[in-house]
Automatic annotation (TrEMBL), chain A:
PROSITE patterns in alphabetical order: HPT
Alphabetical keyword list: Acetylation, Cytokinin signaling pathway, Cytoplasm, Nucleus, Phosphoprotein, Two-component regulatory system
Keyword S-adenosyl-L-methionine: no
Pfam families cross-referenced by the UniProt entry: Hpt
Database matches in SUPFAM superfamilies: Histidine-containing phosphotransfer domain, HPT domain
InterPro entries the UniProt entry points to: AHP1-5/YPD1, HPT_dom_sf, Sig_transdc_His_kin_Hpt_dom
Record text about domains: Histidine-containing phosphotransfer domain (HPt) contains an active histidine that mediates the phosphotransfer.
Domain of life assignment: Eukaryota
Protein name according to UniProt: Histidine-containing phosphotransfer protein
Primary localization class, coarse: cytoplasm
One GO BP annotation of this record: embryo sac development
Gene Ontology CC terms, in alphabetical order: cytoplasm; cytosol; nucleus
Amino acid sequence: MEVGQMQRRLVEFTKSLFMEGFLDGQFLQLQQLQDESNPDFVVEVVSLFFQDSEKLLNDLTSALEQQNVDFKKVDAHVHQLKGSSSSIGAQRVKNACVVFRSFCEEQNLEGCMRCLQQVKQEFYLAKNKFETLFTLEQQILAAGGSIPATEITSF
Amino acid sequence: MARNGVASWRRRSSDQFDDPSPCGSEDVHVLAVDDSLVDRKVIEHLLKISSCKVTAVDSGIRALQFLGLDEEKAAGDFNGLKVDLIITDYCMPGMTGYELLKKIKESSALREIPVVIMSSENVLARIDRCLEEGAEDFIVKPVKLSDVKRLRDFMTRDVGDRVRSDGEGTTHKRKLQESSDVSSSSPSVSSASSSSSSSLPTTPSRSPSPSPSVSLSEPSSPSPSTGSSGPCSPSSLESPTRRLKMTSCCD
């Protein structure tokens, strides 16, 4: 595949991520922060998020498996996850966390368990999408092309 | 890395004023405090890209240590880098950003340093509390480049004023209810002509979430209305006065 084609594919893919709600404006902010002196900034931050959050998800899972669930603790974890997903623009993960928190507040265990599943699903879905995005970028760079900037026009 | 180096602007100016001019663009040193690794990385980068020197720490305690305000050392014991701005997350385990703010404002050595609070939760009572305690500004997360740029502008513009003004720093009471002031000074824009008496932005910025500058067809985040201890749904309100009229979330 030649560079132009790859670039178009990337643009289309990125657009779809926004349209499907995987990404929001905050991701664009991060892309804006990337420059020649920090060419891997976005990849680094996103990778950090996935590493960090994997642990959070494990903590959440065990917290909900306790005999007496400490909902405050669960909420604190979800709050953290919500915050960091919001910081990288992972909108669907963030939204899932928002719903999760309301169940924590109600101390609704069943609701929480469902939300955990939902959050995990969104998490891994997002991870997948980011991986695809970064792979496309890598391919373009490897072929000597440059990454087209994400255009914010109405689509 | 136990580098402590902080001085109030006033003190610094009487010793040797390192900055060549108030607008020395590389000289703004920011201490960023956030327990989230991801957020630390982002804020650090946002600040660096805005030509600030950054020290990022993960807790209030570490921040106080860096500022030279721990038990072992006297507050005056610093040797180098002064801190021009402290930007801290509100929700942190151990010492919250609010508690850190209080400690800083209680310290004669440090109270002159402007403190900005960041929070993912747009809770009016929280914002009020922070401003009453002396925070210069309150930024709703996720932090954007425009937020940082605004802070930078106010920092460099403000340096000269802070050095000259005396007793200005002691009262940091900001009344959000000064609706006339608020609407006229339009704080979310880095207006060069800030109000005469206080050269600091008088109101916090509320970045609506998601990013308003992008017109993407994103589904709006469904924030269910929670009870009193939950976050207010961040609606796209820019003006604090509108916020006052429309919501009554308290925590």
